[in-house]
């Protein structure tokens, strides 16, 4: 399957799901780990590309206030369809919001390491809530795959305490809906 925004017909979606069931799940050019497989009663509706930052703050650790760590705060990314047209934005919650005002808020169910070193993990999320009418209103699950970058800086120090780091990343977000 290509990494483009999809709005599938029920028949095409069922055929695509059957093909995926016969082999390791695929999105884009890479296999999706089994741990990140969506429930069988859902089908891929569309994919969006994200370009943005993962935001971290340097803080003292709870166990030892003389040691420091980068703590994840939130993502901040623009979402694009396969043609490069703006489709929405992604921000804390985690929330995905379409240009039409529809939103989905996700809850992480599973993680798997990225295929490229120095990249944030791939995720499976369930839709905790949706709002509005439009692109995201029927989303039931989503995956963050094909990640690049976004990992917290190395070697946090007391001199960085309270500072924010905005680390560039890209990812594909695959959005699933209930089977018709």
Explained architecture:
With about 180 residues, the chain is mostly beta strands. The chain has one domain (about 10-180). Helices cover about 5% and strands about 50% of the residues. It contains one helix and ten strands, in the order αββββββββββ. It has one helix at about 10-20; strands spanning about 25, 30, 40-60, 70-80, 85-90, 95-100, 105-110, 120-130, 140-150, 165-180. Strands 3-4-5-6-7-8-9-10 form an eight-stranded antiparallel beta barrel. β4 (about 70-80) and β5 (about 85-90) form a beta hairpin. It starts with 9 loop residues before the first helix and ends with a strand. Mean pLDDT is about 85; it is low at about 1-30.
Q: How would you sum up the global shape? A: globular
Main sheet? 8 strands, antiparallel, barrel
- The side-by-side strand order for the widest beta sheet comes to 3-4-5-6-7-8-9-10
Number of helices: 1
- Report the count of strand segments: 10
- β-sheet strand percentage: over 45%
Low-confidence stretches: 1-29
- The average pLDDT value, as a whole number, equals 87
The SS-based structural class is mainly beta
Distance between the termini: 21 Å
User: How many structural domains are formed by the residues?
Assistant: 1
Q: Determine the fraction of residues in helical runs and give it as a percent range.
A: under 10%
Secondary-structure element sequence?
HEEEEEEEEEE
Radius of gyration: 17 Å
